């Protein structure tokens, strides 16, 4: 048996991003590991620690026994507290320790993925103690890795890979959250339609329609006379949807047409990641 064909896309995207991350951080000087990223409270070291930690959990490694400091302002809920343990436990690690652990983790995880024989609907362990289908787990990991690769690239001023395999998976993951953003979070009126026109390395146009019962759906068809049209570039879309920046930070790269109040409400609720 070989890897199920439907899993290969996510595995390829994971491989592309993890190799890119390794290439980015291997030559860094000790001081560069402390550069801040757009992830609140996290440095380059912290982002890489997060990547290592979650991949270790996907391998089934036990979580570290570690008590968090009380003064971490960016730890605001149980999910962020859970994620922070793998990060904080590595804050004293040197650059060679970080690159060595990353390399070892990538080797182990890559071997696991190459030998994956389970079906896409097989339930697997997911960080936090839950279980998800294997196909969904691999897609989520590819998404998370690509987003963090971009976090590192912006922090290190090394842009690239905005159209890599992980970008396509990220697009689909983020688009799945748009109906909730428009219909529930922003409170769009029934029978309204909101168009998202994204250009750049990844281009797409999607329409979120709100039905008479206030439920949102998304499709690729063109809407005539939409309530709101939002036009922006792909990188700004990702940064907003992943909660990296507020709308004011990318205002010059963003154009809105139509109901401004609804447009503002959508932008204020745009982040779909935890």
From TrEMBL:
InterPro entries: DinB/YfiT-like, Maleyloyr_isom, MDMPI_C-term_domain, MDMPI_metal-binding. One of its GO terms (molecular function) is metal ion binding. Residues 178-264 form the MDMPI C-terminal domain. Residues 15-153 form the Mycothiol-dependent maleylpyruvate isomerase metal-binding domain. It comes from the Bacteria. NCBIfam families: maleylpyruvate isomerase family mycothiol-dependent enzyme. This is Mycothiol-dependent maleylpyruvate isomerase metal-binding domain-containing protein. It comes from Streptomyces antioxidans.
């Amino acid at each position: 048996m070989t890897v199920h064909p439907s899993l290969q896309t996510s595995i390829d995207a994971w491989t592309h991003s993890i190799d890119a991350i390794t290439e980015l951080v291997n030559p860094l000087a000790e001081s560069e590991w402390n550069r801040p990223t757009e992830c609140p409270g996290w440095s380059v070291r912290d982002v890489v620690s997060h990547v290592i930690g979650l991949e270790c959990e996907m391998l089934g490694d036990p979580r570290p026994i570690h008590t968090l400091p009380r003064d971490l302002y960016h730890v605001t809920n149980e999910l962020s507290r859970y994620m922070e343990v793998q990060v904080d436990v590595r804050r004293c690690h040197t650059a060679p320790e970080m690159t060595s652990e990353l390399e070892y983790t990538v080797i182990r995880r890559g071997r696991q993925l190459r030998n994956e024989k389970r079906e896409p609907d097989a339930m697997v362990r997911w960080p936090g103690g839950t279980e998800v289908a294997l196909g969904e787990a691999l897609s989520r990991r590819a998404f998370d890795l690509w987003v963090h690769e971009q976090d590192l690239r912006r922090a290190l001023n090394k842009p690239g890979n905005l159209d890599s395999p992980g970008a396509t998976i990220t697009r689909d993951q983020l688009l799945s959250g748009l109906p909730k953003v428009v219909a529930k979070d922003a409170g769009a009126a029934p029978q309204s339609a909101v168009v998202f026109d994204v250009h750049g390395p990844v281009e797409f146009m999607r329409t979120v329609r709100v039905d008479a019962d206030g439920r949102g759906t998304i499709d690729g068809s063109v809407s005539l006379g939409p309530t709101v049209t939002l036009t922006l570039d792909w990188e700004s879309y990702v940064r907003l949807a992943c909660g990296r920046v507020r709308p004011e930070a990318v205002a010059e790269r963003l154009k809105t047409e139509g109901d401004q109040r609804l447009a503002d409400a959508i932008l204020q609720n745009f982040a779909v990641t935890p």
